[in-house]
Amino acid sequence: MDQDLSGFYEKASADPDLAWAAAGAGRMLGSPSVFEDVVKTICTTNCSWGLTTKMVRELVAQLGDPATGGDGPLTNAFPTPAAMAAQPESFYREVVRAGYRAPHFVTLSRAVAAGDVDLESLAVASFAEIPDEEVERRLIQLPGIGPYAAAHVMMTLGRNSRLILDSWTRPKYARLLGKRSVSDAAILRRFRRFDEHAGLAFWLFVTRDWIAD
DNA sequence: CGTCCAGGTCTAC
DNA sequence: GGTAGACCTGGACGC
Known about the structure:
By secondary structure, the protein is mostly helical. The chain contains 13 helices and no strands.
């Protein structure tokens, strides 16, 4: 919530389809840690939302620390990298039901727990210190993270340049335009004017109806 | 009961 | 650089 989006609002107010957002819309809610957002985002890939929440629920129920999460199993904290690193691949397949994502969770959590991969620095680094290109490059290097997932994680970091293009946003955008489908190139062109806020502009465009007005 | 596919990614041409 | 194929799961849908 501490992001300064005045630059975005300036451009949004000049766009008839997004002028409404200039009243103060615009943050993607992030998790307490980048690790948590990365894991959760992997859980959104190539599956139903129902399965996504099921996998996350299982991770939290099985590996989350009740002591730091409040009272009771429903408020467990999200598992730490170390807690996830201690589990074998079979746990992620058989208990979490993560399927082919299982080895990704093992590789990722062990790399983070061992200090070989530093995700949390991405949350505090300034745009000058680590430009979006570099953040995206590092994220895509992670197992199970591709262009879609990198864009999604970046939004939670307040890095709004990349567009979240997936099987939900693409048809939603096309539907809002009254078209059967729209190419990615056309979508990118439409939001190019928002520069470093292009991803946010696109996201607000396709989620506008989530906000009652 | 078989096929398709959902908030994709990765490998191999 | 662009693109088929494979890949876990589980709910929806057709037969």
